[in-house]
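user: can you give me the structure for this one chain? tokens are fine.
assistant: on it. calling the predictor now.
[tool input]
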Amino acid sequence: MDPVVVLVLCLSCLLLLSLWRQSSGRRKLPPGPTPLPIIGNILQLGVKNIKKCFRNVSTLYDSAVSCQGKTNASPCDPTFILGCAPCNVICSIIFQNRFDYKDQNFLNLMEKFNENFRIQGSLWILICNTFPSILDYFPGIHNKLFKNIASLRSYITEKIKEHQESLDINNPRDFIDCFLIKMEQEKHIQQSEFTIENLISTVSDLFIAGTETTSTTLRYGLLLLLKHPEVRAKVQEEIDRVVGRHRSPCMQDRSFMPYTDAVVHEVQRYIDLVPNSAPHAVTRDIKFRNYLIPKGTTIFPSLTSVLHDDKEFPNPEMFDPGHFLDESGNFKKSDYFMPFSTGKRICVGEGLARMELFLFLITILQNFNLKSLVDPKDLDTTPPNSRSLSLPPSYRICFIPV
């Protein structure tokens, strides 16, 4: 055989072998620049300043700090990135899985959550909540809301089927597994509440209630910190003193950070995210203060009336962490603090949400300085509408690494 042909065949085999080894091996490796066949990344390293080259590569592919944090100090709308983190927390609890921020299924979920939250803050949805009988007879954006919810339920149903096929009752992996195990234990109980339909509804509720509410509160909170740089400076001083720069914050830190704790509470009080709470229905005739509320009446508990009570919170329309501090600077609890509603129907995710808000906010301020594109005095913190949801106005922000 011609030596040239043999050489070409050998080189071709080496090339194919190299491509196969790279494609199989890279499945287990962290993300990085695509290597060339045989020679790998040698041309991308450079020979004059290898340390600088590795630093540039790490900057490009360090998803923990640079890519996800939150944009190389360039102005950005924080809506997407602040929605991803709480959503992945819920995903970890429900699916024992977190998504890459470029995963298409994850992006589809985020798009539907964002759209539904905008729809729920509209005047039309307030009308629909007040007169639910019109839903079946009038066109409107509520149909888009229902379509998105149906799509989410379909996705959840597929995930449940996957869990059923791989379920190990002795080794539950997540919320769905625990629910399925309970279903199996109560399969002979006729009136058991552990059913597939209830599982789908519960997971759907966890997603809807546990993602956008936390995300919106964080987004609103950062806007308020931009508006009030003196508050932001005090929080960062407390972070430096208690947590420092070399470890992640934990919930045990909260008892040593009264000012930061007060700021988180004041953000929730001030923004009054769900002014009238979620609509409830009276299950039986109720006598209330000499009035009779008939069974079936829709009730909207006014959270604004307590969160903005001027006797408990002087100047309630002002953002002031002092509302939750005593004269000595210690954190002061208030029975009027009920952004998660109250009673038997209080938000089931209150504990998780409060942990997320505290830890996310500290982590952001521990690693970044916040910069507004306009003078803080010119920032508008008034929500575009004050109907069923208090959403923050759109804004752009720069996250500058500390």
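assistant: here you go. Strands lie at 280-281, 286-288, 291-293, 298-299, 368-372, 397-401. The first strand starts at residue 280 and ends at 281.
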